[in-house]
Write a structure and sequence with these properties.
Lipocalin, serine-type peptidase activity, 2 domains, 2-enoyl-CoA Hydratase, Chain A, domain 1, Tail specific protease domain-containing protein, 19 strands, alpha+beta, disordered N terminus, 6-stranded mixed beta sheet, single chain
């Protein structure tokens, strides 16, 4: 079971392709062994018959695959097209997002050597290197305005201590923030061990998380554990989308059920089953659902996903989270810090719902002391001589804010035409500058 995420990485680039590419070329490709269509389909049927979690679906799946082979539907040479056709037939029967065929000769060879039941496969050089190059799924950490800490987590990778250290490092970064944003919009899943480690930073040790039912094995229950520095205590915002699946949905379910964060974005994929990968002749792999999770109180997210508390378009989720964080922090702040946070919330509000300025944008362009306002690609830019360029975001009337620094605002002045600007700062200071 632990191999599912790392294999999926090799097949579907669950981690950022850019992040992997930055580390240099990967291992040399492995040639796919020759196999006929009958042999390939037989391997798929065998894996499903022996392992598929829903016994009632095994016979219909077998029949669909046999029909596809007999009809000649699978008589194609391109591995991608064969994969597409077989997956289409299986999904028509089971509607299971964990059940699927992929073409990856290297990963197939690794699993064929060890067998899908070998938990030690996660410690092979191939899989450990794959996760290391992608930082175990944690692909970005950055500081946002208002001391809001952001972590992008693209996959719950797990190879033991190395993955644990990656999670611990990301949580140490969040710990010093005033609020945190965890971005799971592109997280396709991974290991329950990684979910357990992450969740343990937000709930007391010993909290019951989920029970797994695996084929004929006795059920196993996952509980949170003690973590370095103890539980985090700060506002948490978790970004979700339809691409957040499987193990990512387990974590999102814990957020919703235990109430330690706010979900923002779109409903998750609805893929709850536990899967394993099995080697198939010809360099293919079949992902087969072999178990299911049960949350405390019963049920899981299969087929339904987890709905966000705040539903927004996926590409607006980060702006909304930053707005929510700034408003929550501003409610408890005083003085210039309160102003800074309110201005930060206003910036993200304007990004979410654009506001028209009082004049045509071209009317603001010009020189203001050592600063230049220019109209570029339908937006105003602000640049001090020799300095970086920032986009000006309209806040209404003649007031704008710097997109990269909400602590600074620009108010254009003048009756009729613009004659100058006043640079306003959250600390209460201001600087006027005439036009020309």
């Amino acid at each position: 079971m632990k191999i599912a995420f790392v294999t999926a990485l090799a097949l579907s680039a669950g981690l950022s392709v850019v992040a992997q590419a930055q580390q240099g070329p990967g291992p040399a490709p492995v040639a796919a062994p020759k196999a006929g269509k009958a042999e390939i389909v037989a391997g798929i049927r065998k894996a499903i018959a022996e392992n598929y979690v829903l016994a009632a679906k095994r016979a219909p799946l077998d029949a669909a695959l046999a029909k596809g082979l007999k009809s000649g539907r699978y008589n194609v040479e391109d591995p991608g097209e064969l994969t597409r056709r077989i997956n289409e037939d299986m999904f028509a029967v089971a509607a299971d997002k964990h059940l699927g065929l992929s073409f990856d000769p290297r990963a197939s060879a690794e699993i064929a050597k060890r067998g899908s039941q070998d938990d030690e496969i996660e410690n092979t050089p191939f899989f450990k290197a794959l996760l290391r190059r992608g930082n175990h799924g944690i692909t970005e950490m950055k500081l946002l305005p208002g001391n809001v800490r952001y972590v992008r987590y693209d996959g719950f990778g797990w190879t033991g201590d190395e993955s644990k250290a990656a999670i611990d490092g990301a949580m140490a970064f969040l710990r010093d923030g005033d609020a945190a944003i965890l971005d799971l919009r592109g997280n396709g899943g991974g290991s329950p061990e990684a979910v357990r480690r992450l969740t343990s930073y937000f709930v007391p040790a010993g909290t019951k998380l989920v029970t797994f039912h695996m084929r004929s094995d006795a059920p196993t229950t996952s509980t949170s554990e003690a973590v370095p520095g103890g539980q985090l205590n700060l506002p948490l915002y978790v970004l979700t989308s339809g691409r957040a699946a499987s193990a990512a949905e387990e974590f999102v379910s814990h957020v919703a059920r235990l109430g330690f964060g706010t979900l923002i974005g779109a409903p998750t994929a609805g893929a709850a089953y536990r899967n394993e990968f099995f080697a198939v002749p010809g360099g293919y792999l079949i992902s087969v659902s072999v178990g299911y999770p049960e949350l405390p109180g019963g049920g899981n997210w299969e087929g339904t996903g987890v709905a966000p508390k705040i539903a927004v378009p996926v590409d607006k989720a980060l702006d909304r989270a930053q707005q929510e964080a700034a408003l929550a922090l501003a409610a408890k702040a005083q003085g210039p810090q309160k102003t800074e946070l309110e201005w930060t919330a206003a910036l993200y509000g304007a990004r979410l719902t654009p506001v028209a300025p009082a004049r045509a944008l071209a009317g603001y362009a010009g020189r203001y002391g050592p600063r230049t306002v220019a109209l570029e690609n339908g937006a105003l830019t602000w640049q001090r001589d020799g300095g970086p360029k920032s986009v000006l975001v309209p806040l209404g009337g003649d007031l704008f804010t710097l997109d990269g620094d909400p602590r600074t605002r620009v108010r254009f002045t003048g009756e009729g035409g613009v004659t100058g600007v006043t640079i306003e700062r959250a600390d209460g200071t201001s600087t006027p500058a005439p036009r020309g």
